[in-house]
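Recall from the previous lesson that a structure prediction takes nothing but the amino acid sequence as input. Here we apply that procedure to Beta-barrel assembly-enhancing protease from Adhaeribacter pallidiroseus. The sequence below is the only information supplied.
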Amino acid sequence: MLPILKKYALLGCLATTLILQSCTQDKNGDRLIFSIEDDINLGAQVSQEVDSTYRAKGQLLDPANPANKAAYDHLNRIVNRILSSGKVSYRNEFAWDTKIIKDDNVLNAFATPGGHIYVFSGLIKYLDNEDQFAGVLGHEIAHADQRHSTKQLQRQYGLSILLSVALGDNPGTLTQIATSLATLKFDRDAETEADAYSVIYLGGTNYYACNGAAGFFEKILSGDQQGRTPEFLSTHPDPGNRVQNINNKAAADGCKTQLSGATTYQDFKNSLK
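The prediction returns the following tokens.
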């Protein structure tokens, strides 16, 4: 559909929504005007801008550079295990590509709408084992897969502006989104749901401890942060509650909670030196 026709169609859908409350229902049971195709288009626009921003700072590790091959082999192996769990709704629709941002002072990861995943080297080096890291990745994959990122951006910028970004018509807002996505603040319900889906995804791997994300928060509780505050705590600051909720979900699901015993995580960390 041509962009101008799509805009009119979406306006018509919006008008109908005032009566019917929705145009489409997605795989997660949500009724959103913003379609999956819009998620994909928005994510493509945003990821290009994020890449450009961090590349200009000299912080984006190029996946095509042979010097970074080992690091990306480790990262993609872990991500692919999660995506192959059979629990990710938009496994086949979203991009699910990965990028590493070289900043050892940042304990963070994030995913754009449409499933473009970014991980800071500081987070990788901070964690103790692959199960903890897989738990964090599961949490971020959930934000994209459950469309939390889209919903939050829509609340923040409004539907019409976000659609203009998805269509490539609003470069100014695109830059704002790209520079702020790493610190995008979700509400507590979204954070709690992402934690729960991390358990579901990891449980589906039959490899990782399904409560791997709890290990991340337990490490935070140990106080070993060296003055760095993870963005994960920006909207839901009680890691103790999150550990309990994650472990309760794991117990309710009856999924594996023993560590995988993966032995290559230190090699992954060493590949970033």
